[in-house]
Amino acid sequence: MARAQGETRIPLFDIRIEEEDAEAVAEVLRSGWLSAGPRTEAFEREFAAHLGCKQVIALSSGTAALHLACLAAGVGKGDEVIVPSHTFVATVNAVLTAARRPSSLTSSGRTTSTSTRIASSRRSPSAPAR
Ligand SMILES: Cc1ncc(COP(=O)(O)O)c(C=O)c1O
Q: Of 2, 4, 76, 81, most Cβ neighbours within 10 A?
């Protein structure tokens, strides 16, 4: 079957917002706690219990989480961080902020995914392994 120009075969996202979700957001807005309030603390506690870990820290964005992950992994200036070539720009931005040296990993062509085996084979000989 022919597709219309601009029509994608695989949608990038499929966001569904239910009335319950909109009401939960409205409740937070009415509370005046727009950052680290009781809802955020409850979310962190429940998500930590779900993951079975001691602590979860909610952040303002995926970009902030990626940057913090780089810092938590000990990535510093000059470190090479291999990122998949098929990703969102935030992945590279986080690495640029933490290490200033992202290295794009081109997929093999069979899939757009990558693996630690492929990443290890593309690592610069001088780069320390983390
Ligand atoms: C794969 C991926 N990583 C990171 C991000 C960044 O998230 P945020 O927009 O919350 O900073 C996005 C955003 O769409 C994303 O799709």
A: 81
